[in-house]
């Protein structure tokens, strides 16, 4: 099944919800960092704490002391590391947001991944939702649905990206389609879990 066919199958069957759930581009980055190794429900608690304290802005995160930041994001777990990562990203964001549009996709991704705390998946989320680049998110949700669709999916984010980028690019997705595709995949993953796994849910999609 081609990537475009998979997109159309999910689009006909699944409500993509709102992805990425955020009010601003900067908030996308905050959420992308906080969601590392934790459930989104925990991230929402941390984001609401930041919002309630009027800190959900680049200047707010830059100004708050690290100890105070750690307490506010405690629900998201790994608060020591994530407080540092948020500070790192905020410094980069403030220095580069307006000039990032001038960079190629490859250079932007490289620059983002040079920021401590931003790995391949987080960098791609930022590229897609903050900088409007039509990249595919090769997360665990995507790798599971691709395996169900018959692809030989390598273990790990970057391995899957390297192996399957060519057929993905053949679909010529726009940025808006990539954003919608990501939402469809996440929501389909939740439905697959409720159905007992992708083997069961894939048959439901085919009916």
UniProtKB/TrEMBL annotation:
<dbReference type="InterPro" id="IPR003265">
    <property type="entry name" value="HhH-GPD_domain"/>
</dbReference>
<dbReference type="GO" id="GO:0046872">
    <property type="term" value="F:metal ion binding"/>
</dbReference>
<keyword id="KW-0479">Metal-binding</keyword>
<dbReference type="InterPro" id="IPR011257">
    <property type="entry name" value="DNA_glycosylase"/>
</dbReference>
<dbReference type="GO" id="GO:0006284">
    <property type="term" value="P:base-excision repair"/>
</dbReference>
<keyword id="KW-0408">Iron</keyword>
<dbReference type="GO" id="GO:0003824">
    <property type="term" value="F:catalytic activity"/>
</dbReference>
<feature type="domain" description="HhH-GPD">
    <location>
        <begin position="34"/>
        <end position="191"/>
    </location>
</feature>
<protein>
    <submittedName>
        <fullName>DNA-3-methyladenine glycosylase III</fullName>
    </submittedName>
</protein>
<dbReference type="GO" id="GO:0051539">
    <property type="term" value="F:4 iron, 4 sulfur cluster binding"/>
</dbReference>
<dbReference type="Pfam" id="PF00730">
    <property type="entry name" value="HhH-GPD"/>
</dbReference>
<keyword id="KW-0004">4Fe-4S</keyword>
<keyword id="KW-0411">Iron-sulfur</keyword>
């Amino acid at each position: 099944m081609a990537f475009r066919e998979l997109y159309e199958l999910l689009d006909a069957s699944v409500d993509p919800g709102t992805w990425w759930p955020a009010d601003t581009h900067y908030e996308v980055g905050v959420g992308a960092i906080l969601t590392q190794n934790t459930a989104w429900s925990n991230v929402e608690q941390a984001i609401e704490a930041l919002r309630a304290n009027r800190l959900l802005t680049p200047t707010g995160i830059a100004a708050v002391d690290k100890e105070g930041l750690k307490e506010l994001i405690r629900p998201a777990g790994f608060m020591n590391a994530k407080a540092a990562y948020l500070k790192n990203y905020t410094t980069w964001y403030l220095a580069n947001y307006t000039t990032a549009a001038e960079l190629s996709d490859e250079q932007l991704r490289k620059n983002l991944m040079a920021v401590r705390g931003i790995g391949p998946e987080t960098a791609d989320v930022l590229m897609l939702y903050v900088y409007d680049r039509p990249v595919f998110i090769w997360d665990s949700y995507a790798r599971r649905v691709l395996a169900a669709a018959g692809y030989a999916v390598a273990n790990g984010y970057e391995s899957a990206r390297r192996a399957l980028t060519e057929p993905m690019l053949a679909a010529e997705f726009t940025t808006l389609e990539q954003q919608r595709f990501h939402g469809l995949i996440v929501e389909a993953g939740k439905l697959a879990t409720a159905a007992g796994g992708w083997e069961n849910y894939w048959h439901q999609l085919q009916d």
